[in-house]
Design brief:
This protein has 339 residues and is α/β, with parallel strands linked by helices. Helices cover 36% and strands 16% of the residues.
Amino acid sequence: MEPWSRPLRGRLDEVEIDSALLADNPLGDPARRPLWVYTPPGYDAAERRYPSVYLLQGMTGQIDMWRNRSAFRPNVVELIDAAFADDGAPPCVVVFVDCWTSYGGSQFLDSPGTGRYHSYLCEEVVSYVDANYATLIAAEHRGIAGKSSGGYGAMVTPMLRPDLFGGLATHAGDALFEVCYQPEFAECARALRDHYDGSYDRFWDDFGSRSAMSKDHDGALINEWAMAACYSTDDDGTVRLPFDPATGQLLPDVWQRWLAWDPVRMVPGHAAALRGLKAVWIDAGTRDEYFLDLGAQAFRQALADIGVDSRFELFDATHGAIEYRYPLAVRYLAERLSA
């Protein structure tokens, strides 16, 4: 394994989109967004159209992180390139989407707490790609994939927009919320009590004054606030936590707002859209720290209950360092969305 980057056999275009939908978003985050579009070897010489797969990042993901390299391992862009150049995956356009927010993520939803990221993805990104690349412009040839929060986006987006997406792949996607989120409520309440006099405002002031993620409780506090900003923000922008920050006690009315966005619970209400999918890939590591392997199993079972088959696998891994799974799912989608 060479330690440095190597030339791609396909091409990676790095462009930007001026988003009208993200202008004046509640957090003041940039409306001009980077977008990466990978085209496979032979794309420029061929006179044909290609299926497309939209690849979503997890919580705190920024688009340039796709180039992050771990020791002895290729990065994600290189893995995707190798899937087409070396491993025989059917040629496909792969779109790397940025939906980062100041809270770390958007869950790829529209929310008065973060902005219109679902609409941005579906209306502006998809239309830009189809207008500028030789893609097959039909849902049956368009897929979506991601890990963690990106896996969440990959699960719910085809339910909400079956007119746009005909296949999905989720790697340890957020699902079964009482298992993956609720355990952190008590951790958040304790951290707020011990360090911030019970105040999230004091936490954010402290977080902005030092190196990010330098305290053990940062991850839980950021994650649960970000999720509340996506799942349970009032129309006036008030973020509602699903637990009492003083005790961690569950607040049932707000918690129900979260559960309405749980992919496992969304399945029955979107059965027709899900039955129309051409491909569903679900996987997770058996040692996932957030128990998203259990969420993966629950999502698979919910799909089976409505008659939808899926490609399902649990493998020996934690939540991190599973980037080698991405090209497997991209190939799976490319094979099924090409026909």
